[in-house]
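Field log, afternoon session.

UNIT: design team B
ACTIVITY: writing a sequence onto a fixed backbone
BACKBONE:
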C-alpha cells in the first residue's frame, strides 16, 4: 500500500451487492486521515547548539529512473552503461542507487556483481569513479561519453595551405 492511501476489500453475495456498495462511503469515512509531516528549518545558531556533532553528507538527487530500453541480450555492464549515458548518469551515483534503478527495471543482481561491473566500466573509462566527501565511491558519466565527437576534422594550417584557385572549374 502506498503511503497516504488506504485500501479495503469488500466481499458480498450478488444479491447483497447493492447494499455493500452503499456501505462504501461509511467505510471510507473510517479510514485514518493522511499523515502530514511538518519540518521546521532551524537557524544555524540552533543547529550549532546541538550536543551531538552533525555530519554533512552530500545529498544526491532523488531517485529518478533513467529513460532507457533494456534489450534481451544486454549484459549488466550494457545496462549500467545505458544508465550513465542518460541524463540520470550526469549526477554522482552511489552503488546503492545503481542497484535500486536496476531493481526498478526488474533486474536483481547481487551487490558484488554490480560493484564489479561499475569498477570495470570505470577502468575502461566508460564511466568515472571517485570518492565522495563521505569517503564512499560514487560514479558518474565520463566526459568522453558525454561529449565524444562523431567525427574529427583536421584542417591544414592556414599559413602553409595553398589558396584554392577559384577561377579553376575543377576546384569549384
Amino acid at each position: 500500500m502506498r503511503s497516504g492511501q488506504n485500501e479495503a476489500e469488500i466481499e458480498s453475495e450478488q444479491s447483497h451487492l447493492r447494499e455493500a456498495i452503499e456501505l462504501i462511503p461509511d467505510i471510507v469515512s473510517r479510514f485514518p486521515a493522511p499523515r502530514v509531516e511538518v519540518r521546521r528549518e532551524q537557524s544555524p545558531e540552533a543547529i550549532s547548539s546541538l550536543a551531538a556533532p552533525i555530519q554533512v553528507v552530500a545529498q544526491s538527487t532523488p531517485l529518478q529512473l533513467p529513460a532507457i530500453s533494456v534489450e534481451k541480450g544486454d549484459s549488466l555492464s550494457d545496462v549500467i552503461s545505458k544508465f550513465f549515458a542518460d541524463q540520470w548518469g550526469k549526477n554522482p551515483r552511489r552503488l546503492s542507487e545503481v542497484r535500486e534503478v536496476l531493481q526498478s527495471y526488474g533486474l536483481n543482481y547481487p551487490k558484488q556483481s554490480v560493484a564489479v561491473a561499475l569498477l570495470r566500466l570505470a577502468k575502461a573509462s566508460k564511466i568515472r569513479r571517485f570518492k565522495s566527501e563521505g569517503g564512499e565511491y560514487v560514479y558518474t558519466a565520463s566526459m568522453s561519453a558525454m561529449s565524444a565527437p562523431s567525427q574529427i576534422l583536421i584542417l591544414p594550417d592556414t599559413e602553409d595551405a595553398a589558396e584554392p584557385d577559384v577561377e579553376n572549374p575543377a576546384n569549384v
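LOG NOTE: Residues 49-61, 145-151 have pLDDT under 50 and may be disordered.
NEXT ACTIVITY: expression trials, pending approval
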